[in-house]
Write a structure and sequence with these properties.
The protein has about 325 residues and is mainly alpha-helical. The protein has a three-stranded mixed sheet with strand order 4-3-5, with no helix packed on it. A two-stranded antiparallel ribbon has the order 1-2. The N terminus and C terminus are likely disordered. A hairpin with a 2-residue loop joins strand 1 and strand 2. It folds into three domains: about 110 residues, Serine Threonine Protein Phosphatase 5, Tetratricopeptide repeat (Alpha Horseshoe), CATH 1.25.40; about 45 residues, no CATH class; about 90 residues.
Length: about 325
């Protein structure tokens, strides 16, 4: 057996132990981000990250680290607009963001935190998270990951325009042989009238750009009207000037009167079905997204314009 006195001890006596503990506490209170597991002595706002920088340090990542359940709870809180809860849930996850390999999950966390801080009027910190999203994916499409409030979506596009040079450099870094060009996408907000749903000839369907359905209802109603008119004319034709029927003409007149009734029934059935269908597909507003173009669209006639610096133009038509 070895001599117990030869075993190296971290602290020679109790005084040394107290001195070391005091040293640790001083470091924890003065350092910008110093944590003693399992407690962190000083809270710190999340810092920016860049997925295109050097590989993140995962030396402090543990196999037991999970984020899926926390992200799901944050999504539920986000839908209910409980932004304080979103921050409380995701802040601990963000402190270990380097341990998450799923880029889409990282982008979603950035978006959730960005919107949460933005809606709480912390614009500077919100911009940090929104820029993280754009730096991770310069081609990020607003609404492709989560639905953003209009104000947050507008701010994200403003940041895209303000940091266009930086994002273009990232695009060139990702794909060096790619030629970067500016494209404009015109998005029109179309307002729909509720009373149009009760008009015949597929007016409600045409309003919602359901052209095929509108054509079906319009054609069947026109065909029914045509058949009804033809039936009425033929009945009068066989009645003659004397307003009397021969035995043969009476049978023919009865057949045409039946056709007249069928035509009116088709019109009524098609109208009722068209109204019900149009009410089912009705939306007060829809967005019409035009094809991208390198030429800046003429929006002089559009009375409401949202940010256009990033190539996204929002107009409203009435």
């Amino acid at each position: 057996m070895s001599d117990p006195r030869t075993i190296p001890m971290p602290f020679d006596d109790f005084t040394a132990l107290k001195r070391s503990i005091s040293k640790w506490m001083i470091q924890a209170m003065t350092a910008t981000a110093f944590c003693i597991p399992p407690l962190c002595l000083q809270a710190q706002e999340p810092a920016a990250h860049n997925t295109h920088a050097a590989a993140p340090d995962k030396s402090r990542c543990y196999e037991s680290f999970t984020y899926a359940n926390a992200l799901m709870r944050a999504e539920n809180a986000y839908v209910r607009r409980r932004y304080t809860t979103v921050i409380e849930i995701l802040k601990p996850i963000y402190e270990n963001i380097q341990c998450i390999d799923d880029t889409n999950a990282v982008i979603e966390i950035d978006l959730l935190l960005g919107v949460a801080y933005f809606e709480q009027q912390n614009r500077a910190l919100a911009d940090t998270f929104f820029l993280n999203v754009l730096r991770s994916d310069p081609e990020h499409i607003v609404g492709s990951v989560i639905t953003l409030p209009e104000t947050s979506a507008r701010r994200l596009e403003e940041l895209r325009a303000e940091h266009a040079d930086e994002l273009n450099a990232l695009r060139a870094q990702i794909a060096p042989n790619t030629v970067i060009e500016s494209l404009y996408v015109l998005v029109e907000k179309e307002h729909h009238q509720y009373w149009l749903n009760f008009l015949p000839f597929g007016a409600g369907q045409f309003q919602m750009h359901k052209t095929a359905w509108g054509a079906i209802y319009a054609s069947t109603q026109l065909a029914g009207i045509g058949l009804s008119i033809a039936g009425g004319l033929m009945v009068e034709y066989y009645r003659g000037d004397n307003h009397t029927y021969t035995a043969r003409n009476r049978a023919r007149a009865i057949n045409w009167r039946t056709a007249q009734i069928v035509g009116l029934s088709v019109v009524a059935a098609s109208y009722i079905a068209g109204v019900i269908h149009s009410l089912c597909i009705y939306e007060p507003e829809t967005l019409i997204i035009h094809s991208p173009t390198q030429t800046r669209p003429d929006i002089a006639a559009a009375p409401f314009i949202l940010p256009d610096g990033a190539g996204f133009l929002y107009s409203s038509t009435f």
